[in-house]
Amino acid sequence: MTETEVHEPTTVVEAPGFAVAVTLGGQLAPEIARYARTAIRTAVGDRRGPVLRADVRIVRYDDPSLDRPVASYATVNLNGTRIRVHTTAKTPHDGLDQLRHELRAAIDRSEEDRRADAHRRPVAADVPAAPRIRVPGVVSGECTVDEAIAVLDLLDRDFELFRDADSGEDTIVHRAGPTGYRLVQARRAPIDTCPAVAVSIEREPAPRLSVEVAAIRLARSEQPFVFFTDVATDRGTVLYVRRDGDYGMVTLA
Q: Would you give the distance in Å from CA 55 to the centre of its chain?
Protein backbone atom coordinates (compact mmCIF):
# COMPACT_ATOMS: atom_id res chain seq x y z
CA MET A 1 0.00 0.00 0.00
CA THR A 2 1.43 3.35 -1.02
CA GLU A 3 0.31 6.89 -0.46
CA THR A 4 0.68 9.34 -3.33
CA GLU A 5 2.08 12.48 -1.71
CA VAL A 6 1.03 14.98 -4.35
CA HIS A 7 0.50 17.60 -1.67
CA GLU A 8 0.44 17.61 2.10
CA PRO A 9 -0.97 20.99 3.08
CA THR A 10 -2.18 21.67 6.58
CA THR A 11 -5.01 24.14 6.86
CA VAL A 12 -5.82 25.51 10.30
CA VAL A 13 -9.19 27.21 10.47
CA GLU A 14 -10.82 28.87 13.42
CA ALA A 15 -14.23 27.59 14.46
CA PRO A 16 -16.07 29.07 17.44
CA GLY A 17 -13.89 28.38 20.48
CA PHE A 18 -11.46 25.93 18.84
CA ALA A 19 -9.19 25.37 15.85
CA VAL A 20 -9.45 22.63 13.24
CA ALA A 21 -6.21 21.45 11.60
CA VAL A 22 -6.80 19.66 8.29
CA THR A 23 -4.06 17.70 6.53
CA LEU A 24 -4.49 16.27 3.02
CA GLY A 25 -2.45 13.40 1.63
CA GLY A 26 -2.62 12.02 -1.90
CA GLN A 27 -4.53 13.44 -4.86
CA LEU A 28 -7.16 15.46 -3.04
CA ALA A 29 -8.64 18.83 -3.98
CA PRO A 30 -8.10 21.72 -1.53
CA GLU A 31 -11.88 22.12 -1.11
CA ILE A 32 -11.87 18.83 0.81
CA ALA A 33 -10.31 20.75 3.71
CA ARG A 34 -13.35 23.04 3.85
CA TYR A 35 -15.70 20.07 3.71
CA ALA A 36 -13.76 18.43 6.56
CA ARG A 37 -14.07 21.55 8.72
CA THR A 38 -17.84 21.61 8.18
CA ALA A 39 -18.12 17.91 9.01
CA ILE A 40 -16.23 18.30 12.29
CA ARG A 41 -18.12 21.40 13.36
CA THR A 42 -21.45 19.70 12.62
CA ALA A 43 -20.46 16.59 14.58
CA VAL A 44 -19.28 18.57 17.60
CA GLY A 45 -22.27 20.90 17.63
CA ASP A 46 -23.01 22.80 20.83
CA ARG A 47 -21.24 20.85 23.57
CA ARG A 48 -21.06 21.68 27.25
CA GLY A 49 -17.32 21.24 27.54
CA PRO A 50 -14.86 23.33 25.54
CA VAL A 51 -13.30 21.81 22.43
CA LEU A 52 -9.60 22.51 22.87
CA ARG A 53 -8.49 21.27 19.47
CA ALA A 54 -9.56 19.18 16.48
CA ASP A 55 -7.22 17.52 13.97
CA VAL A 56 -8.33 15.87 10.73
CA ARG A 57 -6.30 13.97 8.16
CA ILE A 58 -7.65 12.66 4.85
CA VAL A 59 -5.45 10.35 2.77
CA ARG A 60 -6.09 8.79 -0.64
CA TYR A 61 -3.95 5.65 -1.04
CA ASP A 62 -2.61 4.82 -4.50
CA ASP A 63 -3.41 1.10 -4.31
CA PRO A 64 -5.83 -0.39 -6.88
CA SER A 65 -6.48 -3.41 -4.64
CA LEU A 66 -8.23 -1.25 -2.04
CA ASP A 67 -12.00 -1.10 -2.40
CA ARG A 68 -12.07 1.94 -0.07
CA PRO A 69 -8.86 3.85 -0.81
CA VAL A 70 -9.68 7.04 1.12
CA ALA A 71 -8.95 7.04 4.85
CA SER A 72 -10.13 9.82 7.13
CA TYR A 73 -8.93 10.35 10.69
CA ALA A 74 -10.16 12.80 13.31
CA THR A 75 -8.98 13.52 16.84
CA VAL A 76 -10.99 15.94 18.97
CA ASN A 77 -9.85 17.15 22.38
CA LEU A 78 -13.14 17.75 24.18
CA ASN A 79 -12.50 19.34 27.56
CA GLY A 80 -9.36 17.26 28.01
CA THR A 81 -10.85 14.01 26.70
CA ARG A 82 -9.30 12.90 23.42
CA ILE A 83 -11.84 11.29 21.08
CA ARG A 84 -10.44 9.54 18.02
CA VAL A 85 -12.34 8.13 15.03
CA HIS A 86 -11.40 6.94 11.56
CA THR A 87 -13.21 5.72 8.46
CA THR A 88 -12.40 4.28 5.06
CA ALA A 89 -14.50 5.03 1.99
CA LYS A 90 -14.55 5.13 -1.79
CA THR A 91 -14.51 8.95 -1.97
CA PRO A 92 -13.35 11.77 0.34
CA HIS A 93 -16.88 13.15 0.71
CA ASP A 94 -18.31 9.73 1.64
CA GLY A 95 -15.51 9.24 4.15
CA LEU A 96 -16.09 12.62 5.79
CA ASP A 97 -19.84 12.04 5.94
CA GLN A 98 -19.15 8.76 7.76
CA LEU A 99 -16.59 10.49 9.94
CA ARG A 100 -19.17 13.09 10.99
CA HIS A 101 -21.62 10.34 11.98
CA GLU A 102 -18.99 8.31 13.86
CA LEU A 103 -17.62 11.35 15.66
CA ARG A 104 -21.06 12.46 16.84
CA ALA A 105 -21.75 8.94 18.18
CA ALA A 106 -18.34 8.80 19.89
CA ILE A 107 -18.85 12.18 21.56
CA ASP A 108 -22.30 11.14 22.77
CA ARG A 109 -20.79 7.95 24.19
CA SER A 110 -18.00 9.90 25.89
CA GLU A 111 -20.50 12.24 27.54
CA GLU A 112 -22.57 9.28 28.74
CA ASP A 113 -19.43 7.72 30.23
CA ARG A 114 -18.58 10.98 31.96
CA ARG A 115 -22.02 11.09 33.58
CA ALA A 116 -21.71 7.44 34.60
CA ASP A 117 -18.31 8.12 36.19
CA ALA A 118 -20.01 10.32 38.77
CA HIS A 119 -21.87 7.26 40.07
CA ARG A 120 -19.07 4.73 39.67
CA ARG A 121 -17.86 3.07 42.83
CA PRO A 122 -14.38 4.00 44.11
CA VAL A 123 -11.38 2.20 42.66
CA ALA A 124 -10.41 -0.89 44.65
CA ALA A 125 -7.84 -0.31 47.37
CA ASP A 126 -5.33 -2.76 45.86
CA VAL A 127 -5.00 -0.81 42.62
CA PRO A 128 -1.60 0.92 42.64
CA ALA A 129 -2.07 4.49 43.77
CA ALA A 130 0.64 6.17 41.66
CA PRO A 131 -0.79 5.78 38.14
CA ARG A 132 -4.07 7.58 37.59
CA ILE A 133 -6.55 6.38 34.98
CA ARG A 134 -7.19 9.33 32.73
CA VAL A 135 -10.64 10.09 31.34
CA PRO A 136 -11.30 7.41 28.69
CA GLY A 137 -10.86 8.04 24.99
CA VAL A 138 -13.41 6.64 22.57
CA VAL A 139 -12.68 5.01 19.22
CA SER A 140 -15.37 4.58 16.63
CA GLY A 141 -15.37 3.20 13.11
CA GLU A 142 -15.16 -0.10 11.29
CA CYS A 143 -12.30 -1.30 9.11
CA THR A 144 -10.53 -4.42 7.87
CA VAL A 145 -7.44 -5.96 9.44
CA ASP A 146 -5.28 -4.67 6.58
CA GLU A 147 -6.66 -1.15 7.02
CA ALA A 148 -6.01 -1.28 10.78
CA ILE A 149 -2.39 -2.32 10.14
CA ALA A 150 -2.03 0.53 7.66
CA VAL A 151 -3.22 2.99 10.34
CA LEU A 152 -0.86 1.38 12.88
CA ASP A 153 2.09 1.96 10.56
CA LEU A 154 0.98 5.36 9.26
CA LEU A 155 0.58 6.86 12.73
CA ASP A 156 3.43 4.81 14.28
CA ARG A 157 1.30 3.43 17.13
CA ASP A 158 1.92 0.47 19.42
CA PHE A 159 -1.61 -0.84 18.90
CA GLU A 160 -4.77 -0.16 16.92
CA LEU A 161 -8.20 -0.86 18.41
CA PHE A 162 -11.00 -1.31 15.89
CA ARG A 163 -14.21 -3.15 15.01
CA ASP A 164 -13.33 -5.72 12.36
CA ALA A 165 -15.47 -5.24 9.24
CA ASP A 166 -15.12 -8.94 8.40
CA SER A 167 -15.98 -10.62 11.72
CA GLY A 168 -17.82 -7.74 13.43
CA GLU A 169 -15.73 -8.29 16.57
CA ASP A 170 -13.90 -5.75 18.70
CA THR A 171 -10.27 -6.37 17.78
CA ILE A 172 -6.76 -5.12 18.45
CA VAL A 173 -3.68 -5.45 16.29
CA HIS A 174 -0.29 -4.70 17.82
CA ARG A 175 3.39 -5.19 17.14
CA ALA A 176 4.42 -8.68 18.25
CA GLY A 177 4.90 -12.25 17.10
CA PRO A 178 6.92 -13.79 14.26
CA THR A 179 5.16 -11.73 11.57
CA GLY A 180 5.57 -8.43 13.39
CA TYR A 181 1.81 -8.06 13.90
CA ARG A 182 -0.52 -9.91 16.28
CA LEU A 183 -4.30 -9.83 16.28
CA VAL A 184 -6.47 -10.41 19.36
CA GLN A 185 -10.28 -10.50 19.38
CA ALA A 186 -12.62 -9.65 22.22
CA ARG A 187 -14.59 -12.77 21.31
CA ARG A 188 -13.03 -15.44 19.15
CA ALA A 189 -14.62 -15.44 15.71
CA PRO A 190 -13.51 -16.84 12.36
CA ILE A 191 -11.89 -14.45 9.92
CA ASP A 192 -13.27 -15.37 6.51
CA THR A 193 -11.12 -12.94 4.50
CA CYS A 194 -7.40 -13.63 4.81
CA PRO A 195 -5.47 -10.37 5.41
CA ALA A 196 -2.98 -9.41 2.72
CA VAL A 197 -0.43 -8.59 5.43
CA ALA A 198 0.92 -11.54 7.38
CA VAL A 199 -0.40 -11.40 10.95
CA SER A 200 -0.38 -13.94 13.78
CA ILE A 201 -3.74 -14.53 15.47
CA GLU A 202 -4.07 -15.12 19.21
CA ARG A 203 -5.97 -18.34 19.88
CA GLU A 204 -7.58 -17.11 23.08
CA PRO A 205 -10.03 -14.19 23.22
CA ALA A 206 -9.35 -11.14 25.35
CA PRO A 207 -10.13 -11.66 29.06
CA ARG A 208 -13.32 -10.20 30.53
CA LEU A 209 -12.25 -7.78 33.27
CA SER A 210 -13.34 -4.73 35.16
CA VAL A 211 -11.26 -1.60 34.64
CA GLU A 212 -9.98 -1.93 38.21
CA VAL A 213 -8.74 -5.50 37.67
CA ALA A 214 -7.21 -4.53 34.32
CA ALA A 215 -5.29 -1.75 36.10
CA ILE A 216 -3.92 -4.29 38.58
CA ARG A 217 -2.82 -6.58 35.75
CA LEU A 218 -1.14 -3.73 33.94
CA ALA A 219 0.70 -2.61 37.08
CA ARG A 220 1.96 -6.14 37.74
CA SER A 221 3.05 -6.85 34.17
CA GLU A 222 5.92 -5.53 32.08
CA GLN A 223 3.66 -4.93 29.07
CA PRO A 224 2.77 -1.40 27.92
CA PHE A 225 -0.96 -2.16 27.65
CA VAL A 226 -3.74 -4.63 28.46
CA PHE A 227 -6.52 -5.48 26.01
CA PHE A 228 -9.72 -6.75 27.62
CA THR A 229 -13.49 -6.83 27.34
CA ASP A 230 -14.91 -4.41 29.89
CA VAL A 231 -17.53 -6.25 31.94
CA ALA A 232 -19.41 -2.98 32.45
CA THR A 233 -19.78 -2.15 28.74
CA ASP A 234 -19.12 -5.49 27.00
CA ARG A 235 -16.80 -3.66 24.58
CA GLY A 236 -13.17 -4.12 23.69
CA THR A 237 -10.98 -1.79 25.76
CA VAL A 238 -7.28 -1.01 26.03
CA LEU A 239 -5.65 0.24 29.22
CA TYR A 240 -2.13 1.50 28.51
CA VAL A 241 0.79 3.31 30.12
CA ARG A 242 1.03 6.93 29.02
CA ARG A 243 4.29 8.76 28.55
CA ASP A 244 3.67 10.69 31.78
CA GLY A 245 3.33 7.43 33.73
CA ASP A 246 -0.43 7.62 34.22
CA TYR A 247 -2.80 5.15 32.58
CA GLY A 248 -4.82 5.96 29.50
CA MET A 249 -7.92 4.06 28.44
CA VAL A 250 -9.38 3.64 24.97
CA THR A 251 -12.69 1.91 24.35
CA LEU A 252 -14.87 1.22 21.34
CA ALA A 253 -18.10 3.17 21.00
A: 13
